[in-house]
Amino acid sequence: MSEPRLHHVQCLSPAGLHRMAYWEWGERGNPRVLVCVHGLSRQGRDFDALARALSGRYRVICPDVMGRGESDWRPDPALYQVPVYVSDMVSLLARLDVAQVDWVGTSMGGLIGLGLASLPGSPIARLVLNDVGPAIEYAALQRIGSYLGRRMQFADLAEGAAHLREISTGFGPHSEAEWLALSRLMFRPAPQGGVRLHYDPAIAAPFAALTPELAAAGEAALWRAYEALRCPTLLLRGAQSDLLSRATAEAMTQRGPRAVLEELPGVGHAPTLVAPEQIELVRHFLK
Fold this sequence. Notes:
The protein has ten helices and eleven strands. The protein has 287 residues and is an alpha/beta fold. 44% of the residues are buried. The mean pLDDT is 95.
C-alpha cells in the first residue's frame, strides 16, 4: 500500500466533543495492530516509511494528536496536555476494537504511550519509546520553546521545509527526498498566500508555562508511571540527544520494565524512523 486511509474518531474532553484524525495502513481486519504516535509539533504521516515497512504484518494506525494535522483544534489551550491525549487514545482503541496493540511513540507520543501502558489492564503489549523517558532535560525544553507556536508563514513549501530542517538538526541526516516527505504534510496554504505550519499555535501555551519546579514534579510522576510498566519496552536514543540524557536512558534499563536500549549514532532528538537501520530495530523488537 503506497498511501494510507484517513479516518476520524470522536473524542470527549472537558470542553466537549472533538474529532481526532488517524491514518490507517494495511489490512483493516488484521488483529495485529501497531499504533504510532508523533512528537510535539508533528503529525501522523511522520511514520509513512515505518508504516509501509510494517503494514504487511500489522494494521498500522497513525493518529494526528488533537491540534495537529487533520485533527480538530481546541478552544482552550489548557487541554493540550498528555492526560487529555491519553483519553483520546482510549477512544481510538475502542474504535479499533482489538484486545491489544503494540505502540511506537516518538517524544510526546512516547509519553502518551507511557501514560496509557502504565494503567491497570492496559492493552499495550509491546512499547517502543523513541528518544523520551521520565526525565526530560530542561535545556531541551527551552530550546523547543524558542520556536514552538510561532505564527510563521513561508513563501512556499521549499522555504518552509528549509526552516524545519534548520530547527530539526537532531533528526539526523536525510536526503532531500526524505526531508521533503517529512515536511510536505506539515504545511497548509496560508490565507494571505504562501504556506503556514499546520498545527495550532496554542499548543505552545502549556509548554510556555512550564517551570523547573513543575518539570521536577512531572518527572517524579513519570518515573512512577515507568515503574508500573509490565510490557517489554525498547528505548531508542539519539546518541546526541539533548532531551533524553544517557544517564536517564541507562537508568531506564535498570528500573521498571528494564528497557532494551539502542543508541543511534549521528542522531539527536529525535530519530525519525525513516532510515532502514532504524526501521529494522523496531521490526526486530516487535517480532
